[in-house]
Amino acid sequence: MNDSRSFNWQGWSVFGALLLLWECASRFNPDLQLYLPPVSQILGTLARLIVSGQIVTHLAITFTRFLEGYFLAAVIAVILGAVLGYFRFAHSLFETVIEFLRPMPSVAIIPVAVLLLGIGDSMIVAVTVYASLWPVLINTIDGVRHTERTLIDTGRTFGLSRRRLLWQVVLPAASPYIVTGLRVSLSIALILVTTGEMVAGSRGLGFFILDQERSMNSGNMYAGIILVAGLGYLLNRLFLLCEERAMKWRHGMIAREAV
Amino acid sequence: MPILEVQNLSKTYRQMGGETTLAIGDISCKVEPGEFVSFVGPSGCGKTTLLMSIAGLIAPSTGKIIVHGKEVSGPPANLILVFQEFNKSLFAWRSVLGNVRFGLEARGNHSRESANKARSLIELVGLKGFENHYPWELSGGMQQRVAIARALAYEPELLLMDEPFGSLDALTRLELEDTLLKLWEELGTTILFITHDIEEAIYLSDRIWLLSRRPSQIVEELAIDFARPRDQITTRAEARFMGIRNRIYQRINSEGAP
Prior knowledge:
heterodimer; A: 259 residues; mainly alpha; MetI-like fold; globular; B: 258 residues; Rossmann fold; 2 domains; six-stranded mixed beta sheet; four-stranded antiparallel beta sheet
């Protein structure tokens, strides 16, 4: 894994070269320009949209929905996962249900959510929660179930109650799994918010992107896409930064095992 | 009153396919407060099963275990089991200090002084300066020292140790034996020790119980009366030391294969 502190020059160069290719291809090909304006032009549009405040409200709405959906999903999934991982009987009760629901593409639930919740915030958040639940849930169950027997026996010999055992031993031991699930869910949550907004929203970046496309305003559409891409990128970086701090013990351990 | 009393303990395991294995035949013994006693036996003789039962981590099939006058039905208070696999038993997400503090927290001691107490225990096991290291940054011997300090932080009256030095190299093992003896003499904790290293048992213990192969039973009890504090060179150099060792070795071997 790349150390987040060292700057990846090669990676950014390739990224820059691709942008340059896009810029040139668009500038020297008027036919293409209609569908794919030059990057510089899109960035200009984006700047204008931000300054005018037109896109900022959409961004704020998307971001809020994302936060609500993601954190709600994380809390529910960790609690549920801990219970299902910890209590064999609970797991055997719900295993089949989970195995059926999990592989279903989560966007397929959107029509159901629209039926039940109508269009609007609650529908989009509900769909986001549903979709981002799975990776955290599955990983938490796995992590809890894979906790070393010796570790649990250690907690027990120190007289921990089942509740404290879960909090002080099992969940920390499972935390690398949980974090993996949380990271996968991060992008899923953003996908579902945007998709939800496209299908049944009247505000938010997803709605904005589709709305601009329908108004044949490809410059604005691309500006929206770039903004949502940037949001995803920043959220992922932020996540990695937090993870590195919280899981410091783990990183050193992996680095040493790799040697 | 003995601190530990085992009465006619037996343990049967049900294997897959319904077959049953008798791991522990019939064991009865008593440990007095402050003693250092060891079980020695061939590998696979059910030593760990015995210790896990005493620790209340598995239920015996028949018989009784009484710790401090109370019959064991779950992990008893005042008793800590130190595992052989220190790398699996330490909390990887806690520093050395955090691991040792866990022993105090488990007792309900979350006070500021608990950090000081943990620090002094860390010093006592010879890990001063490593308080903020994570377990993976330490060698095996140091990790087991952390596990011992964590156990002692809980102030158990009875410390059970399941081949705690079994996976360490010979030199580290000798060092840790001496550290353990020093702590035992200083703190007065009763220690019940399991090992398959005959000399280790003789060096450490007041009394040794020899276990037979499965289904295990106590075949002999030996009192070891070498002067304390013991010394790796002079104690082991005593003429009687080798005599006892050879006798135990012959006795275990004569039990034959299961």
